[in-house]
TrEMBL record:
Domain of life: Bacteria
UniProt-listed PANTHER family: GLUCOSE INHIBITED DIVISION PROTEIN A, METHYLENETETRAHYDROFOLATE--TRNA-(URACIL-5-)-METHYLTRANSFERASE TRMFO
SUPFAM superfamilies: FAD/NAD(P)-binding domain (SSF51905)
Function: Catalyzes the folate-dependent formation of 5-methyl-uridine at position 54 (M-5-U54) in all tRNAs.
Official protein name in the record: Methylenetetrahydrofolate--tRNA-(uracil-5-)-methyltransferase TrmFO
Gene Ontology MF term list: flavin adenine dinucleotide binding; tRNA (uracil(54)-C5)-methyltransferase activity, 5,10-methylenetetrahydrofolate-dependent
Length: 454
């Protein structure tokens, strides 16, 4: 029992942590409360279910920090990246995933692993002893949230996450919409036509903004305040910040030519991205929303091409809890007051599927090494993993700590390189080259013989 690693939460972080530890030879029990205990956002009992977007964002490992994180996870035999690659959908330069087969494959890989057993029950209290990783994500149950808050001596911080709607493709009017990635980005025709575009003229855009601002919204319960993560703002919150905000955000009309009217430049464009391999479902990109369902359908059907849209899922909003990690966690992700417990994933204050899985990867390896009596070197700060974990466990300002995506602003500067926009390409390439070397060096010291086989 003392050499068993217990992981609470079977999302991206918990699934990756279990995979990594099991491949290092450690017995793992993965505790997942679904499907016995449901959440607002989940639809199934599958592990690693994608509840918001189906995108892992940019896959460019030379010029983009999240693409670099993809590279590091692949180099570490990451299960999440293996299955994302297996169930990849066309998305220009992004890595989009067919969400249901992806989650089913992760579930199958974990449940069939000889070192992993899955226990379907809710954990409601912090364990007193043993080896534990808590990776319960943004929808940590009320009981466990209260236990964490009681232990840390403060109420858990929280912001609100919003989910984008999904549309049935056969309900979209393709005489008004067209298929094209911005700037025709992609190496194949499928990639260059990965997005479905719905154009608006100025009058249509202004009417849409008016309706969006007037629509009924989900109200917060007494005592709740809305602290949104800027990378996942509801569209109506963006509109409240200024009428042009959406036109310069998810509805920007750049890099696109409407084949139905090639000489007319759209005032704004709504993009949809394929959500499954069959191409029967499309999600509205960047259209997270807290509008009530009735109002939501009416407003979204104002979009040209979506007048008759049928929705497989409407958008929604849910509470998202996270720790003040700079004050509560050590550099190796332990809870300071209970060092036998590590935290991983979105509850630590990272944002995004990839970042969550990456923190699970590190927590799984660190916990497994401890159980096996091995000492690992510090995760190199110059890697994407290291930059991210350094930020959340001490690099960030605790008083203003908010969830963070991986980005090059977290990386230490490279001496001798030009700053500003003009030097950005060379600077990013230097970051990624340095990170890859540092990460490969760390992997060579953090794995047992044979653990890198897939």
């Amino acid at each position: 029992m003392s050499n068993t690693l217990h992981i609470v939460g079977g999302g991206m972080a918990g699934s990756e942590a279990a995979w990594q530890a099991a491949h290092m030879g450690v017995e793992v029990v993965l505790h997942e409360m679904r499907p016995k205990v449901e959440t607002f956002a989940h639809r199934t009992g599958d592990l690693a279910e994608m509840v918001c977007s189906n995108s892992f964002r940019s896959d460019d490992d030379e010029q983009n920090a999240v693409g670099l994180l993809h590279w590091e996870m692949r180099a570490a035999n990451g299960l999440i990246m293996q299955m994302a690659d297996r169930h990849r959908l066309p998305a220009g330069g992004a890595l989009a995933v067919d969400r249901d087969p992806f989650a089913q494959s992760v579930t199958a890989a974990l449940t069939s692993h000889p070192n992993i057993s899955v226990s379907y029950e809710e954990i409601t209290a912090l364990p007193e002893n043993g080896h534990w990783i808590i990776a319960t994500g943004p929808l940590t149950s009320d009981a466990l949230s209260r236990a964490i808050a009681a232990e840390t001596g403060a109420e858990a911080l929280a912001f609100f996450d919003a989910i984008a709607p999904i549309v049935y493709f056969d309900s979209i009017d393709m005489s008004r919409a067209w298929m094209q990635s911005r700037y025709d980005k992609g190496d194949t025709e499928e990639e260059r036509t990965a997005y479905l575009n719905c154009p608006m003229d100025k009058a249509q855009y202004e009417a849409f903004i008016d309706a969006l601002l007037a629509a009924d919204k989900t109200e917060f319960r007494e005592g709740e305040t809305a602290q949104y993560f800027d990378g996942c703002l509801p569209i109506e919150v963006m509109a409240e910040r200024g009428r042009e905000t959406l036109r310069h955000g998810p509805m920007k009309p750049v890099g696109l030519t409407n084949p139905h009217a090639p000489d007319v430049k759209p005032w704004a464009v709504v993009q949809l991205r394929r959500d499954n391999a069959l191409g029967t479902l499309y999600n509205i990109v960047g259209f997270q929303t807290k509008m009530k369902y009735g109002a939501q359908a009416d407003v979204l059907r104002m979009i040209p091409g979506l007048e008759q849209a049928q929705f497989a899922r409407l958008g929604g909003i849910h509470r998202n809890t996270f720790l003040n990690s700079p004050t509560l966690l050590t550099a190796d992700m332990r809870l300071r007051s209970r060092p036998h417990i590590r935290f991983a994933g979105q509850i630590t204050g990272v944002e995004g599927y990839v970042e969550s899985a990456a923190m699970g990867l590190l927590a799984g390896r660190l916990a497994a090494a401890e159980i096996l009596g091995r000492s690992l070197p510090e995760v190199p700060q110059d890697s994407a993993m290291g930059a991210l974990i350094h930020h959340i466990t001490g690099g960030a300002e605790a008083k203003t700590f908010q969830p963070m995506n991986v980005n090059f602003g977290l990386f230490r500067p490279v001496d001798g390189l030009k700053g500003g926009r003009r030097g950005r390409r060379d600077r990013y390439k230097a970051y990624t080259d340095r990170a890859k070397e540092a990460w490969q060096g760390w992997l060579s010291h953090s794995s047992l013989d044979g653990t890198q086989s897939s």
